């Protein structure tokens, strides 16, 4: 999706997912994705609805199952001209 539109800004962020570890066991991966969206929205100053998360990032969060999420995740954030934000693996 990056190839079709011109990127205006690219950064690499370490996203802490510690808050996802304190919820119930069956909701940890779901909460980790929401924490990822919240963190990216805050650091890129964009709405949560305009954030597109790549499938590889989602697979990395769900890699060890629903109950064991990583403590942090390194992602590459690409902000496009139309205001959408893509989250991909570096």
From TrEMBL:
Q: Name one GO cellular component term.
A: ribonucleoprotein complex
SMART domains noted in UniProt: Ribosomal_L31e
Origin superkingdom: Archaea
The signal sequence is: none
What PROSITE patterns would the database entry show? RIBOSOMAL_L31E
Spell out the InterPro entries in the cross-references. Answer: Ribosomal_eL31, Ribosomal_eL31_CS, Ribosomal_eL31_dom_sf
Keywords assigned by UniProt? Ribonucleoprotein, Ribosomal protein
Which Pfam families does the annotation name? Answer: Ribosomal_L31e (PF01198)
Q: Which GO terms describe its biological process?
A: translation
Q: Which GO terms describe its molecular function?
A: structural constituent of ribosome
Q: Which family does it belong to?
A: Belongs to the eukaryotic ribosomal protein eL31 family.
Q: What is this protein called?
A: Large ribosomal subunit protein eL31
